[in-house]
Write a structure and sequence with these properties.
Number of helices: 7
Helix content: 40-55%
Shape: globular
Keywords: Flavoprotein, FMN
InterPro entries: Flavoprotein-like_sf (IPR029039), FMN_Rdtase-like_dom (IPR005025), ISF_SsuE-like (IPR051796)
Domain NADPH-dependent FMN reductase-like: 1-157
Order of helices and strands: EHEHHEEHEHEHH
Largest sheet: 6 strands, mixed
Pfam families: FMN_red (PF03358)
Number of strands: 6
GO molecular function: oxidoreductase activity
Length: 210
């Protein structure tokens, strides 16, 4: 089993990375392998609704979104980390998630179906719960079980050193890692004992116009 930790901060090894590493260490202690990827700090376009992903099963723009999609199918779970920017996820991570998940959904890739996911948020002070809510909405649409901790998945600090001083935040990250490891092992055991995945139906897309 392995989990991919996605760093959505413009800083490669800043506060968000520090929080993700604490989750990763807890997963490793429970016997789950982890990798960390950074979405980078170059501009990421938002989705332009060209629908090319339906043909390509990837995004028409070649950047870190497609790098992620190429490896996502190899992982059993995901943790997405973001700093708080204007009481929401970073603009880059928002564009990244918009395109990555839509490319999979529209292209029929099925890379994320019933794989557990969690959002980890870092902030100097506020906006964390709004950001957590925002990111969790992606998981709900992708049929990804949302893993929680004993508190909302957030840490506080303006530097990695300050984040490490957030004792409750660090504990929340460790519990999150252990909870995800438990879920993964439960799923693995269920499949090994013959409990198959739920039956799926073709998508039915409707709107409010008859």
């Amino acid at each position: 089993m392995k989990v991919l930790l996605v760093n959505g901060s413009p800083h490669r090894e800043g506060c968000t990375y520090t929080a993700l590493c604490e989750v990763g260490d807890a997963l490793n202690t429970c016997g789950v392998d982890t990798d960390v990827i950074w979405i980078g700090n170059r501009p990421l376009s938002g989705c332009i609704a060209c629908h090319k992903c339906a043909e390509l099963n990837r995004c028409v723009f070649q950047d870190s979104v497609n790098d992620f999609l190429e490896i996502a199918g190899d992982y059993d779970g995901f943790v997405f980390g973001s700093p708080v920017h204007w009481a929401g996820a970073s603009g880059a991570l928002t564009s990244f998630l918009d395109r990555a998940f839509y490319a999979d959904l529209n292209g029929g890739g099925n890379r994320f179906y019933l794989k557990p996911a969690a959002a980890v948020i870092s902030a100097r002070r506020a906006g964390t719960t709004a950001t957590w809510d925002q990111i969790n909405k992606y998981f709900g649409l992708m049929q990804m079980p949302i893993i929680t901790s004993r508190y909302w998945n957030m840490v506080h600090g303006t530097t990695p050193e300050e984040v490490r001083q957030d004792a409750e935040g660090m504990q929340t990250m460790r519990i999150l890692g252990r909870n995800m490891a438990f879920f993964l092992k439960c799923k693995e055991s269920a499949l090994a004992h013959g409990l198959g995945l739920p039956a799926q139906e073709p998508f039915r897309f409707t709107n409010f116009i008859r």
